[in-house]
């Protein structure tokens, strides 16, 4: 089965980490985000994945020189310009000559969704498209999708005010689509699948949805990226090693519920808590890193404090004794 994976965005919410690296190529407690997404799809019969690329396509190509990941064949579809969600799906599917039922996923969503069940439900209803739904506390940031007793979508309401949302079941960013959906997507212009394509399918009675609870993380913000990564350490999503091979942690350092990437080092007296220290980064003696992200090869000087969801970009240096709280460095990346 084919899958289209949307990975073309600029990842602005995760800057400065994404100034040089697409967010789907950031490590999530070891493997990159895109590797985790593809591994999950492979478990459900996907054997060909079309990456809908825009920002820094070279990084993806370099990461998978043989064009495969977890046994899945990779196809690269590089948008000539940003085409929005629907336009990206249409462009990628046409580039890959998809002519049968296919899956679409957002490349920054980590989930344990049973994609096999979603495909089976889709086929049983004769739908043109089927959306996976997940419950959230605040649906105002997402597309809310009410359904009838048969699972047919009765409306598609993108980002409603919190007090007007008809339910808390939202679009989880995984779809099963028939190739006929491509006829609904104009060529050569921006098309929103949420605001144009899905509402038209609702009007025709051709869109269905399946409500399922489970792990679902939109890892596109610093807080969500930290939480998603740490969930792979504590057993809630996996049991990856907290200190990667090739990392060095001094016996006099304290590392609690954090991930230390390959080649990174944590000196004596340092405290790292609920944090991500990306590959090659250095945490100096007596420094404190708490609930923050230290970018690749960044340096936190002796006695410095990096706290409260601060994010350090690649190769950034924090001076000894400095304090950063809820900071983005370099700041102009905000």
Kindly summarize this structure in a few lines.
This protein is of the alpha/beta class and 334 residues long.
Residue ranges: pLDDT <50 for 5 or more in a row?
Answer: none
* Principal-axis shape: elongated
Taking all Cα atoms into account, the compactness measure Rg is: 21 Å
Question: What is the arithmetic mean of pLDDT?
Answer: 93
The assigned structural class equals alpha/beta
Number of helices: 6
Multimeric state: single chain
Q: Helicity range of the residues?
A: 10-25%
| Proportion of beta-strand residues | 25-35%
The CATH class label of the largest domain is: Alpha Beta
Question: Mind explaining what this structure looks like?
Answer:
This protein is α/β, with parallel strands linked by helices and 334 residues long. It folds into 2 domains: 2-220, Alpha-Beta Complex (Spore Coat Polysaccharide Biosynthesis Protein SpsA, Chain A); 241-333, Hexapeptide repeat proteins (UDP N-Acetylglucosamine Acyltransferase, domain 1, 3 Solenoid), CATH 2.160.10.10. Helices cover 18% and strands 27% of the residues. The protein has 6 helices and 27 strands. It has helices at residues 33-42, 57-63, 84-95, 115-125, 193-203, 222-231; strands at residues 2-6, 48-53, 68-69, 72-78, 102-106, 109-111, 129-135, 143-144, 157-158, 169-177, 207-211, 216-218, 248-249, 254-256, 259-260, 265-266, 271-273, 276-277, 282-283, 288-290, 293-294, 299-300, 305-307, 311-312, 317-318, 323-325, 328-329. The strands form 6 sheets. Strands 3-4-2-1-5-10-7-11 form an 8-stranded mixed sheet, with helices on both faces. It has a 5-stranded parallel sheet with strand order 13-16-19-22-25, with no helix packed on it. Strands 14-17-20-23-26 form a 5-stranded parallel sheet, with no helix packed on it. Helix 3 crosses helix 5 (193-203). The longest helix is centred in the N-terminal third of the chain and has 12 residues, at 84-95. It is elongated, with a radius of gyration of 21 Å.
């Amino acid at each position: 089965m084919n899958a289209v994976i949307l990975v073309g965005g600029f990842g602005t919410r995760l800057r400065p980490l994404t100034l040089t690296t697409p967010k789907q190529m950031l490590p999530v407690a070891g493997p990159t985000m895109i590797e985790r997404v593809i591994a999950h799809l492979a478990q459900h019969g996907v054997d060909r994945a079309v990456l809908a690329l825009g920002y820094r396509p070279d990084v993806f190509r370099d990461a998978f020189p043989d064009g495969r990941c977890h046994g899945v064949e990779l196809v690269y579809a590089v948008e000539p310009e940003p085409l929005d969600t629907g336009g990206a799906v249409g462009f990628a599917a046409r580039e890959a000559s998809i002519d049968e039922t296919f899956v679409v996923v957002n490349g920054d969503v980590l989930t344990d969704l049973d994609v096999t069940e979603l495909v089976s439900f889709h086929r049983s209803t004769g739908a043109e498209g089927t959306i996976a739904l997940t419950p959230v506390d605040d649906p105002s940031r997402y597309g809310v999708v009410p359904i009838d007793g048969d699972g047919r979508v009765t409306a598609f309401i993108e980002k409603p005010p919190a007090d007007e949302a008809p339910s808390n079941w939202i679009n989880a960013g995984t779809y099963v689509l028939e190739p006929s959906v491509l006829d609904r997507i104009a060529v050569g212009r921006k098309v929103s699948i949420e605001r144009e394509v899905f509402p038209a399918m609702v009007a025709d009675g051709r869109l269905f949805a399946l409500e399922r609870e489970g792990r679902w993380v939109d890892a596109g913000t610093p807080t969500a990226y930290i939480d998603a990564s740490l969930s792979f350490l504590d057993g809630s999503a996996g049991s990856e090693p907290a200190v990667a091979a090739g990392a060095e942690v001094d016996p006099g350092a304290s590392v609690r519920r954090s991930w230390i990437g390959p080649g990174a080092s944590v000196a004596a007296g340092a405290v790292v808590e609920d944090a991500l220290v990306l590959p090659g980064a250095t945490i100096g003696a007596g420094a404190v890193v708490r609930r923050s992200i230290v970018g690749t090869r960044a340096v936190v000087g002796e006695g410095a404090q990096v706290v409260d969801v601060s994010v350090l970009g690649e190769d950034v240096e924090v001076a000894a004794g400095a304090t950063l709280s809820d900071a983005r460095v370099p700041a102009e990346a905000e």
